[in-house]
Amino acid sequence: MTGILQEMKTSISHQEIVDFLHEESELLDEWKLVEWADLFSEDGTYLVPPLGNPDADPATSIFYINDDRTRLEERAKRLLKKEAHVEYPHSTTVRNIHNIRIKQQEGNVIHVRCNFSTYRTKREVLDCFVGVNDYRLVVKDQRIVIQEKKVTLKLDSLRPHGKISLIL
Amino acid sequence: MKSYIREDHQKSEFSVHRSVFTSHEILEKERQEIFSKCWIYIGHESELPKNGDFKRKKVGGRNLLFTRGSDGVIRTLYNSCPHRGALVCRENEGNTKVFRCFYHAWTFKNDGELVGMPGKDGFSEEFNCDGSKNLTEVSRLESYRGFMFVNFDTNAISLDEYLGNAKEYIDLVADQSEVGLEVLHDPQEYSVRANWKLISENSVDLYHGMPTHKTYFDIKASQDPGLKKAVLEGKGIDLGNGHAVIEYIAPWGRPVAKWTPAWPEEDRAEIEELKNKLVKRFGEERAERITGYNRNILVFPNLVINDIMAITARTYYPIEPGYMEVTGYSLAPKDESEKFRLRRNDNFLEFLGPGGFATPDDNEALELCQEGYLNNLEVEWNDISKGMIRDEAQATDEEQMRSFWRKWNEVMTKQSVKEEVLT
Which residue of B lies nearest to A46 if distances are taken between CA atoms? Predict the structure, then answer.
């Protein structure tokens, strides 16, 4: 681990990664969704695999979300429209991220993992989404960008939430 | 007794009393009259490909085991030990020769037979000679084209008779592959904070398509520059027995088999080939109906098969008057190419899934209806009249919902809806 961290320091520090993830959470909580989409690289993806099957194959399993760069931007823009009824008026959210750890660096791709708990309240009903985020981050033009964000929900089912209308 | 449904042909008005969405008493009666006597969808036979495969399912409020025994026979067993009642199987799915209750270690073969119990010398020699200590099997399990249903009422009519005219539409789905359909892994288990009947209505409601799903159609239009204005046109049909369908054309592509400009030009030939195979099997007219048209089928009371930009079988059950659990399955031809399978799955999660661009808005609409029913004492009736003035209902009319409600009323009150003149 020390070895990886030392290697990081030449490109990107642990603190910079922590700050980046906190900024992402803040953008989402403030509904700055277009800015959120801008955090992704041109080939960036955003995935929510099936519950209990985080390594599922999208050809044989139904994911909740399997967005390429185009669709994650469509998702962000859609949620800002009044006709995205489920999020109009916008729900109130708080995203907490914890246990941030750098798992690996392969070439210029840094694999970062953190736990999350995301609270959403609307019409006085509070739902809590918990799980683990796996990021593949790269540095491009002196800034960190997300090549892949995979959200593994640690839930038995989407009950009572009923949906993933938020960006997790 | 006060009537739940009012139908007035003179004024062309159809109303449903909103107490049906909020009353605990009515829900209790639904559990007895509907969920204990109607045919309820449990799963597709492709979910159990190998001997010993099992899936744990909650169906009609019961804890069931959907199993394929070592003898190859598909059965439905109650997941409850005959000894003290504990679940004998806790895994959601798997493959096993035996189920073993951990509490006192009674062991059952995968066909339900009791084959082991510690301290056997403490029981009489005749113990279980009558089979009463085996896992109980659900009295009726029947299949139509791979779609399997249970019925808890021994005296129920056959599934074939029950499905009636709905079979024609299930055929149009099942005929899409010569080698059959399969259910994909990882069904979506979600919920809606609303009454279960609202999803029966919603799933065959094309009228809400444009206003509720405008953002989805906007995204589709941006992918297909030729698509200025999406058109949803077709027929709404009462299939009898409470079943209903809408059959219509829509702007999205269908993996079997309608190409859209949102897909690469080079895939056009592959789609044409799929269609040509169907023409050879069924002739031009039926092949066009299978491939070019969409259908949302409602099988009374709680199965929806939407054959649209992907195929979903969706089933749901009320936990409370204002809360239901939903399970959404995806079905696809077993012999589908990986390219088209991925495209289908994309279509599915983009529109049908609870993380998509449409279903969450449906969920919201249903929950807002349920919230509105707080006003039931003063605002009592829902309106379901659209299209009553026409001889042939359009797909965006509400005839298919009226057929659900007429059957619901008949099952619940043992009376058909009486013509009433509204005052």
Answer: B355
ipTM of the complex: 0.93
Checking A100-109 for CB contacts under 8 A at 24+ apart, the result is A100/A17, A100/A18, A100/A21, A102/A4, A102/A5, A102/A8, A102/A14, A102/A17, A103/A134, A104/A4, A105/A4, A105/A7, A105/A8, A108/A11, A108/A138, A108/A139, A109/A136, A109/A137, A109/A138, A109/A147
Q: Which CATH number fits domain B175-413: 3.30.1780.10, 3.90.380.10, 3.40.50.1110, 3.40.630.30?
A: 3.90.380.10
**Structural domain boundaries in chain B:** 40-159, 175-413
> Does any domain span residue A162?
no
Q: What is the CATH number of the domain that holds A103?
A: 3.10.450.50
Of A65, A125, A159, the CB nearest to B349: A65
User: How many domains does chain A contain in total?
Assistant: 1
pLDDT tens per residue across span B9-53: 999 999 999 999 999 999 999 999 999 999 999 999 999 999 999
User: Which of A163, A164, A165 is the mutation pick for testing B, counting most B CBs within 10 A?
Assistant: A163
Question: Inter-chain contact A48–B355, Cβ cutoff 8 Å?
Answer: yes
CA distances from B97 to A6, B43, B58, B404 (A): 53, 21, 21, 42
Question: Looking at the partner chain, which of A59, A65, A160 has a beta carbon nearest the beta carbon of B341?
Answer: A59
Give the residue from A89, A68, A87, A69 showing the smallest Cα distance to A78: A87
Class of domain B40-159: mainly beta
Contacts of B287 (CB under 8 A, 6+ apart): B275, B278, B279, B281
pLDDT score, position A9: 44
CB contact under 8 A, B357 and A74: yes
Digit-coded pLDDT (tens) for B180-218 = 999 999 999 999 999 999 999 999 999 999 899 999 988
B185–A125 C-beta distance less than 8 A: no
